[in-house]
Amino acid sequence: MARNKQLSKEKRVAIITLRNEGQSVRKIGKTLKVSPSAVTKTIKRYKETGSHADRPRKGRPRVTSAAEDKFIQVTSLRNHRLTAAQIRDQVNATQSSSSRHISRTTVKRRLCESGLHGRISARKPLLRTGNKQKRLVWAKEHKEWTLDQWKSVLWSDESKFEIFGSNHCVFVRRRKGERMDSTCLVPTVKHGGGGVMVLGCFAGDTVGDLFKIEGILNQHGYHSILQRHAIPSSLRLVGPSFIFQQDNDPKHTSRLCKGYLTKKESDGVLRQMTWPPQSPDLNPIEMVWGELDRRVKAKGPTSAKHLWELLQDCWKTISGDYLLKLIKRMPRVCKAVIKAKGGYFEEPRI
């Protein structure tokens, strides 16, 4: 059973002071938010010892010194990728052969006491100095945009969905000997067991067309998608002069596609948004893909054909309220990027 936290010296003094003033045990406990039994024990101990000091406590002495605790903390902060075992080896290497060597578990405890907990590292695209500057410029240009302006943007992107594939870490609780139990495993197959590549878009509170990409998508295929799906969806969802967003994939910025979009822009059909490189975290459609993947996986696709059917069905169930929440968070995204000076930022909640 866990040991109760002892009262502070200040509370012990307050208990004795109030008791000397004639207050009851129950009233003292209520005033100081202490249990009556704790008040009674404090009064009894004071009568026996006449002191408010802590009693000598039994137990195993702390293995590490204050200096070693600081060394463990600073070593981890200098290199966040060091394991507890590596830090342990560094601490033990600084000690003499006659000293007691510390264990990996001790290092873990000291790190947790310092607020340094082991976590799975987030995966983000590499941002070079030039990328950060362009992201910062984009955020500053759009930080004052109104909700209506954000709603006039057509957000577009491609994404691949697999039947079994998943890059997410899955945690399970198991007993000894259950590591290879089927209920504690995540089954995998080569190439994800079959997948479907799609291109989708949304604007405001409505999703556009979801197009299935067959084979490898090149500039000619993307040009066809722009003509038959992306632009018609935009005109249907927003109307003329909508703002078209796309990333800097080579097929998107090819001479063929760029010329087509520039012609449409000169005709007043659309306006192109200048998009910073290496910035999928700025595009709200990435969160839509995550939501779509969760809904599809919950239905258990069994084949590539079945997966495509589920993708189409679940795509239509993405609610307008959810999409609007993604749009409304964009000003907070811009502020977060500016605060991070164009670098990585903590995702604002929707």
From TrEMBL:
- The record's region (Disordered) falls at 47-66
> GO MF terms on file?
DNA binding
**Origin superkingdom:** Eukaryota
Q: Origin organism of this chain? A: Mastacembelus armatus (zig-zag eel)
Q: Which UniProt keywords apply?
A: Paired box
Do the record's keywords include Lyase? no
Task: Offer one example of a GO biological process linked to this entry.
Answer: DNA integration
Q: What is the lineage of its organism?
A: Eukaryota, Metazoa, Chordata, Craniata, Vertebrata
Q: Where is the composition biased (Basic and acidic residues)?
A: 47-56
**Gene3D superfamilies given for it?**
Ribonuclease H-like superfamily/Ribonuclease H, Winged helix-like DNA-binding domain superfamily/Winged helix DNA-binding domain
Q: Where is the Paired domain?
A: 3-104
- Which PANTHER family does the record associate with it? SI:DKEY-77F5.3, TRANSPOSABLE ELEMENT-RELATED
Q: Which residues form a coiled coil?
A: none
For this entry, the protein name equals Paired domain-containing protein
State a single Pfam family of this protein. HTH_38
